[in-house]
Amino acid sequence: MNKYITALAYLQRDMHMDKVYLKLIQPILRQDEVQEMRKYMHHGYIDCLNHSLQVSYMAYRIGRKFNMDSAALARAGLLHDFYLYDWHIKGGHEGRHGFRHAGIALSNARKYFDLSEVEEDIIKWHMWPLNIGFPKFKESWIMMFADRYCTLLEYLRIAPLQPKLF
Fold it and tell me: Phi and psi at residue 47, in whole multiples of 5°?
């Protein structure tokens, strides 16, 4: 079996058993607007919510290993693509998606959740360098890595099937 598939399958299995992680994200997952993320395909065959779950958990695990703010990584990872539109449809949103969706996701996240400064920075800068400026926190760099890694595996279709938490 491909080592990347094995690694991601392990992460998904572990995600379901990680009670600390689940406790961190459950309040976010219970929000109806967050569940709307399931409506939008993100990278090929995976919806936006499940992409965000994979990114969130990967970033959380990295943060925990390196003694970072793993709670912020878990929560912001789940909200980093909280833009609520189909970016594949022309005219379905304003501007170029890659440049604008981080700001839209941050605006949406602020509407429904109290965010820490670290969480805001993570969401705002996850698409760096497409945004002008630089992240303030090391957790933002971890999120960029986790998002790009999961995205690459999704585009190459070597990511496992979508996790089902609820």
Answer: -80, 165
> What pLDDT is recorded for position 125?
81
Q: Which residues pair with 47 in a beta bridge?
A: 41
Q: What angle do CA 51, 63, 102 make, to 5 degrees?
A: 45
DSSP 50: H
Exposure on the CB side of residue 55, measured as CA atoms within 13 A: 36
Question: Of 40, 73, 94, 44, which Cα lies nearest the Cα of 141?
Answer: 73
77: Cβ–Cβ under 8 A, 6 or more apart, which residues? 52, 55, 56, 57, 58, 59, 60, 122, 143, 146
Structure tokens at 111: 């509407």
Global confidence as pTM: 0.80
Neighbours of 63 (CB within 10 A): 22
Q: How far apart are CA 163 and CA 157, in angstroms?
A: 15
Residue 46's DSSP bridge partners are 43
